[in-house]
Design brief:
mainly alpha, ion transport, transmembrane, Fluoride-specific ion channel FluC, ion channel
Amino acid sequence: MITILAIGFGGFLGAITRVLTSNFFNKIIPHDFPYGTLIVNIIGSFLMGLFFSYANSKGVNLLSKSIISTGFLSAFTTFSTFSYENLLFLQSGDYFHFFINVISNIALCLLAVWLGFLIFK
């Protein structure tokens, strides 16, 4: 039961951090493109790589892994928002932004998780 509560607490913090971060970037970057979601996904991917690299090299207990990865980072990243924004691009016929968004999120998030992982390797 403690693990479930810990994941919930981590998720609560991750969701709040996601909204604040996404809103911040959407306000400072003029756009017709979901930069906030993209940046949150890149940051979350980097942090996931960083965390698991650290956890694999130094050892982290299961409760900490649950709070950080399943709780905070899973709530912080925004795949459902990413999917919805892409659906809106498709429905409006904006195929250019659809492809840019999909390619950017996949390529940059894979790069970010790899860079994060390299830090403690």
